[in-house]
Design goal:
The chain is α/β, with parallel strands linked by helices and 382 residues long. The protein has 13 helices and eleven strands. The protein has a domain of 123 residues: Peroxisomal Thiolase, Chain A, domain 1 (3-Layer(aba) Sandwich), CATH 3.40.47.10. It is globular, with a radius of gyration of 19 Å.
Length: 382
């Protein structure tokens, strides 16, 4: 199997973008990555997107982007695995190169959510749940996570304010990221007084609806362009039941734990070797559950890491180093690629004021649904 390297990256600011279409946002990020790599047009195109059909009335998004970017007669595919669509596209491109089928590939994650009315986006997000058992019963995506958070608080004795550290950390890091949606600091008081969305989840527990696109060029050859070389040390994917009610343990992200375990084994390392963790903090409860599933603490102890300030940039396990989903924003199909772009910048020492200390390995985990489709990657600085 060929070793696979990250050769180029591109990203556009996460925001409410009224001036560009989904196609234009994705194209901008893709062209940035192509220019950054400096190796010309790659052999194939993989696009991650969740709600192009429902929110943008656009199917065949991969083919459309091949046309828009001038990838004539080359293979192109669009990938949908809910909020993990970006990482899923990255994994498919990775396997195509590792197998020898391709030497280079462009991966784009893109989503345009703010053009649609809020109720339509809520309905589109709910398609990531089990239609018969959850969505048709009136459960929104935030409602499902609220149920998880309520049960977690009941089982382990945590209070809502104990989750504040996750959002405070994300916003503290995002102010140094020019591509982040939010550039405002928050404190514990602001967190506890934020308007309720779906009890116990309030506005500062949840990531924002956003527009965005990010892209990566993968290559079978090491290309530095004067920077540190970053390779993919591990790639793993796992699934769980789509509905929460059918899980043996609703408070354990089994797919996240399984994919993380596989990734550690592939890379030949463990949690203590990880210098930063880009987790999927779509909601603060997911931040806690992800830390537990990835092996950084025992079940029920996720909030403790935030309370004890162990997740800050200068701490032992920096997370959401450029704002995470909470403060950078969560354009769902693009999120997995933003995470990988940000982890790459960290390993190259190019993260500016949020640069982490340990730059050997980065763990990146992208979660689809309420933990039903999870893809974990480990990046390594060569």
């Amino acid at each position: 199997m060929n070793k696979v390297y990250i050769a180029g990256i591109g990203q556009v600011p996460v925001e409410e973008n009224w001036n560009k279409s989904l196609k234009e946002l994705a194209g901008d990020a893709g062209l940035m990555a192509i220019e950054d790599a400096g190796i010309g047009y790659p052999d194939g195109l993989f696009v991650g997107n969740m709600m192009g059909i429902t929110a943008n009335r656009q199917a065949q998004f991969g083919t459309l982007m091949a046309d828009w970017l001038g990838f004539h007669h080359k293979p192109a595919i669009s990938v949908e695995t809910a909020c993990s669509s970006g990482a899923a596209a990255f994994r498919l491109a990775l396997m195509a190169i590792a197998s020898g089928e391709m030497e280079t590939a462009l991966v784009i994650g893109a989503e345009k959510m703010t053009d649609s009315p809020g109720n339509e986006i809520t309905s589109s997000l709910a398609t990531a749940s089990d239609a018969e058992l959850e969505a048709d019963m009136g459960l929104s995506f935030v409602g499902l996570n609220a149920l998880l958070m309520r049960r977690y608080m009941h089982e382990y004795g945590w209070k809502h304010e104990d989750f504040a550290g996750f959002s405070i950390n994300a916003h503290a890091n995002a102010i140094h990221n020019p591509n982040a949606r939010f550039h405002n600091l928050i404190d514990r008081e602001a967190f506890t007084r934020a308007p309720m969305v779906s009890d116990p989840i309030n506005l500062l527990d949840a990531s924002p609806v956003s527009d965005g696109a990010a892209a990566i060029i993968l290559s079978a050859r090491s290309i530095s362009n004067g920077r540190k070389v970053v390779s993919v040390a591990a790639s793993a994917s796992a699934t769980d039941t789509t509905s929460i009610q059918n899980r043996k343990d609703g408070l354990r992200l089994a797919a996240a734990a399984s994919s993380a375990k596989q990734a550690y084994r592939q890379a030949g390392i463990g949690p203590k070797d990880i210098g930063l963790f880009e987790y999927h903090d779509a909601f603060s409860i997911m931040a806690a559950l992800s830390l537990e599933a990835a092996g950084f603490c025992a079940p029920g102890e996720g909030p403790k890491l935030a309370i004890e300030n162990k997740i800050a940039i200068d701490a032992e396990l920096p997370v959401a180093t450029m704002g995470g989903l909470k403060a950078r924003g969560h354009p769902v199909g693009a999120t997995g690629i933003y995470q990988l772009v940000e982890a790459s910048l960290q390993l190259q020492g190019l993260a500016g004021k949020t640069q982490v200390k340990r730059t050997d390995y980065a763990l990146v985990q992208n979660i689809g649904g309420s933990g039903s489709n999870v893809i974990t990657h480990i990046l390594r600085s060569e």
